[in-house]
Amino acid sequence: MLKFEKKIEAGAQWFQTQAVYDMDNFKRFMEQARKINDKVKICAGLVLLTSMGAIKYMNANVPGVFVPDELVKEMADAPKGEALNTGIRIMARQIRMCMDEKLCDGVHIMAIGKRAQCRRSSTRPEWISPSCSVTLPFAPAWSEVMGSGVRS
C-alpha cells in the first residue's frame, strides 16, 4: 500500500489493478485503499481464464497474480471444449460482484487472444461489451477522471 500512497501523493487520480481472481483478497485490498483515499478511482483488471495451461502459467510465473483453488477446480471440471465458456461465466460473476458490492469503480476486461471467441459466445451476458476488452465504469464520475479513455 506504500506504493499506492506514493502514487496518490504524486498526483495519481485512478488505478487499474493487476489481474484479479481472488475476490476475497481484492475486497481486503479495496478496504485498505479506501481508508487511504476514497476519492481516487480504482478499476479492477479482469483477465479471462481460458485454459488450465494459462492458469498454471499465471500461478507459476506472474508475480502478484494468483488463481484460487476453487477457480482452478471449476476450470478443471469444465467439460471438454467448454473452458472458454466457463472462464466467461467466472468473469461474469466477478463483474457482477464488483458491481453489486460496489467493490471498485469499474473493471477492465481483458480477453487476451480470445476477443473473437468472446464476441461469438452465446453465454456472454448482455452487460459485457461485445469487444470483450473494455473498461466498464460503474459511476458517471469515472468518465470525468478518464476523459476520452473510456471505451465501450
Features:
single chain; disordered C terminus; alpha/beta; 4-stranded mixed sheet; 152 residues
Q: Total helix count? A: 7
| Number of E strands | 4
From the N-terminal CA to the C-terminal CA, the straight-line distance is 30 Å
Low-confidence stretches: 120-134, 139-152
Q: Can you offer a commentary on this structure?
A:
The chain has 152 residues and is of the alpha/beta class. It has one domain. Helices cover 47% and strands 14% of the residues. It has helices at residues 2-9, 23-36, 52-61, 69-76, 83-100, 115-120, 140-146; strands spanning 14-19, 41-47, 106-110, 135-137. It has a 4-stranded mixed β-sheet, sandwiched between helices. Helix 2 (23-36) links the parallel strand 1 and strand 2 (41-47). Mean pLDDT is 80; it is low at 120-134 and 139-152.
Describe how the helices and strands are arranged.
Blueprint: H1 2-9, E1 14-19, H2 23-36, E2 41-47, H3 52-61, H4 69-76, H5 83-100, E3 106-110, H6 115-120, E4 135-137, H7 140-146
Parallel strand pairs: 1-2, 2-3
Antiparallel strand pairs: 3-4
Helix pairs in contact: 4-5
In short:
By secondary structure, this protein is an alpha/beta fold. Helix content is about 45%, strand content about 15%. Helix 2 links the parallel strand 1 and strand 2 (about 40-45).
